[in-house]
């Protein structure tokens, strides 16, 4: 009956509203900054919000020599220990039997760094404190690193688990970025930092590391060519040392161009929606506008060919108002003046429609929801507008 159909329609509408509000709340969480910095009371304790462990954990132990074979009347006798091999505590808990103070000097250790991990600076070595349940920097000295051989050498006062750490924000803030369509439902995200250029392809609900350049040299990563869904992909990149994903505490360790979270979220959502037919890029003017607005470059991009001198438009967006700026990227001073013969719009979609082709808008309309969601998730995770 019509009453049942109407009831069902109201129910669906309510479900969609709840879903939309839940998604929006989750997206906001990805760009919100924590108001409190984590407290670490001891100087030698590693702040895992500032540093990240890379290459796994190395368990270093000295083992006691097991009972040796003894020849007795033609027999070889050996004591069998039920517990198996025993760890030797170094230095021993009691050292009364040893005369000199340096009877147990630090032991030199050399480790090979995992081949699938990238260190942009010499790695730091830290040890696990089983009692305090944290990583510490004390008890380790004479650290040296040979990047060509990927060998790190250090002296260790006592044995136990050790790992290598790197500044989690070494690639932040970014120097520039670009989001460029490759096809319908397929884009290339390029993030350029002080040390590297990372290219990520996104299609449907999948992401792939396309290339990594280190100081103009291409670096071969085991992740290249492997398609993954966004969250496992982000985890894999972090574990490889390619961290371009700020956390809610990152702003305490990096000088950022902080933007209002809701403005940032709305910008990423609308950029993702348009990404099948429009390229977006970093603009220096984003640094000069206030925190309630973002500025970026945009242009229609329907072919894979790279134009030498692309005709970028500069857009400014405040979450509920989009405008095309009169200034260009090369201008000498920032101005919010509106470009001649253009007008304000409430969304980026309506803004770009003013200067785009029918073919471009058709591509936008044919974008899949999964693809738009994946692009949006990657933009929210990299926070390009606040961290560049």
TrEMBL record:
Signal peptide: none
GO MF terms held by the record: beta-tubulin binding; microtubule binding
Coiled-coil regions listed: none
Ranges that cross the membrane: none
Domain of life according to the entry: Eukaryota
The protein's name in its UniProt record: Cilia and flagella associated protein 94
Residue ranges of every copy of the CASC1 C-terminal domain listed in the record: 133-300
InterPro entries cross-referenced by the UniProt entry: CASC1_C, IC97/Dnai7-like
A cellular component annotation (GO) from this entry: axoneme
């Amino acid at each position: 009956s019509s009453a049942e159909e109407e009831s069902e329609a109201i129910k669906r509408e309510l479900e969609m509203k709840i879903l939309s509000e839940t998604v929006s709340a989750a997206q906001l969480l990805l760009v919100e900054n924590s108001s409190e910095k984590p407290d670490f009371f001891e100087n030698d304790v590693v702040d895992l919000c500032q540093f990240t462990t890379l290459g796994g954990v190395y368990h270093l132990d000295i083992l006691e020599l097991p009972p040796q074979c003894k020849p007795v009347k033609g027999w070889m006798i050996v004591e069998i220990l039920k517990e198996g091999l025993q760890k030797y505590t170094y230095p021993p808990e009691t050292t009364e039997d040893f005369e000199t103070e340096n009877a147990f000097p630090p032991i030199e250790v050399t480790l090979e760094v995992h081949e699938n991990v990238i260190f942009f600076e010499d790695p730091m070595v830290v040890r696990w404190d089983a009692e305090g349940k944290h990583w510490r920097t004390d008890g380790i000295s004479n650290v040296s690193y040979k990047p060509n051989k990927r060998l790190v050498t250090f002296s260790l006062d006592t044995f136990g688990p050790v790992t290598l750490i790197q500044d989690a924000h070494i690639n932040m803030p970014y120097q520039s970025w670009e989001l460029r369509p490759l096809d319908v439902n397929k884009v290339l995200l390029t993030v350029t930092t002080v040390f590297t250029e990372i290219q990520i392809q996104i299609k449907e609900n999948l992401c792939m590391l396309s290339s990594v350049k280190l100081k103009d040299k291409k670096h071969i990563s085991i992740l290249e060519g492997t398609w993954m869904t966004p969250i496992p992909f982000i985890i894999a990149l972090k574990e490889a040392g390619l961290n371009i994903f700020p956390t809610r505490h990152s702003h305490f360790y990096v000088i950022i161009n902080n933007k209002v979270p809701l403005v940032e979220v709305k910008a990423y959502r609308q950029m993702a929606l348009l990404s099948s037919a429009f390229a977006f890029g970093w603009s220096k003017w984003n640094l000069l506008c206030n925190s309630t607005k973002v500025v970026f470059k945009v242009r229609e991009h329907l072919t894979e060919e790279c134009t030498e001198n692309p005709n970028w438009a500069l857009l400014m967006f405040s979450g509920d108002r989009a405008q095309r700026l009169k200034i260009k990227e090369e201008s000498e001073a920032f101005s919010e003046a509106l470009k001649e013969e253009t007008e304000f719009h409430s969304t980026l979609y309506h803004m770009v429609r003013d200067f785009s082709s029918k073919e471009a808008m058709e591509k936008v309309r044919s974008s899949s929801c999964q693809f738009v969601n994946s692009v949006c998730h990657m933009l929210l995770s990299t926070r390009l507008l606040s961290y560049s």
